[in-house]
User: Fold this.
Amino acid sequence: MTTPDFPAAFRETLAARRLRVLDRLGDGVMVLPASPVQYSSRDNERPYAPDRDLYYLTGLAEPGAVTVLVGGDEARVVLFVRERDPEAELWAGPRLGPEGAQERVRADACHPLSELSQRLPELLGGADLIHYRLGRHDEVEGMVLGALATARLRGPRQGTGPRGVIDPGEIIDELRLRKDESELQSLRRACRITIAGHRAAASAMRPGAGEWVVEAALEAAFRGAGASGPAYDTIVGSGVNACVLHYVRNGDTISEGDLVLIDAGAEVDHYCGDITRTYPASGSFTPAQRRVYEVVDAARQAAIEVTRPGATIRSVHEAAVRTVVEGLVDLGVLSGSVEDLMDQGAHKVFFPHQTSHWLGLDVHDPGDYAKDGKSRPLEPGMVFTVEPGLYFAPDLEDAAVHDYAGIGIRIEDDVAVTGTGCEVLTSDLPTSAADVEAMATGS
Ligand code: GLY
Ligand code: MN
Ligand code: MN
Assistant:
């Protein structure tokens, strides 16, 4: 079964989320299609990744399912799912079918997917706006555009019918940004299992081991602890590979004296963990590696310390940047006043990315970071990463960075904003230089 039965509390949580959407829809209608089964090559089915918005509102991980939320006086939620099909189920496993889906979700109605084209025009006919993501699903898009064309012909005389399309993210992204208790529980579990994977990776990591061996140990621990797998492509970058931000080849052998950057997260209940740790392969940092490591870890700490309701995501980044710039001045890599260097963005050569991204059902979860040009204040329930890094490209000519050439270090934790500060969801995996040295030697 692609979708297990729902505990009653989860069903109620989902119903409450749908009500929040209906409240915000006014006379609009939202159409959320899930992608059909995807193939990697010929008839080789990919593991199914449910559409996150649809899952958020229905708990369904059924390929091809479509949810229609109709706002207004006759607000209702109507589902469409694939029908049962013994021949197809023999190959690909059981389907819920309309009855199974309805038993779980308890929508206002659940119909076979084959009835969508016949029923959708009526569901859309009374809407003023259609909340639909363009460019995602040819077939459903054709129906949405058809409804708009019809409304354009008939609307002027009837005075009703949809006149425009708006992205569902305008409503759903904002809701997904503030995690409810059920989501926080899933994220805590994802982080716990991510930590177990990182511990297994640290044990497997040693000079002479392939990066892929570390990746395999980490992902085996994810699966062994109950994750569905990695939430994104695992990064095991040794030596200069650590300077490639999204290095995923994991094809080199770890050498004595290398740093090994491991960025990996488990997917649990479709929620993502996202942790990075950087270890000295041989168990102790060189003096230069340690100096850089301590700057990055101090930046991580500084960013977490300012994380609380009312702070902004920009202030979290600025706390990390300030610490990095001060550190780079201490290391002799930058010179000048910290304020001027921050204003100039002098750190960006070495710390080129943001400190944070929202985290949830997607590893880079949706939601605006700024409103009206201003960084938005943090609120309880927002979950994001804190992941400063310093990367000294191996071919940097500058004499000031010579000692650090080829060093790449990132340290990444996941945090949830609480009523008064923040909960570090990944705090059980240590970050101090001494602790990661100990982990690297298996002690
Ligand atoms: N692993 C992806 C990220 O940290 O953003
Ligand atoms: Mn991240
Ligand atoms: Mn990451």
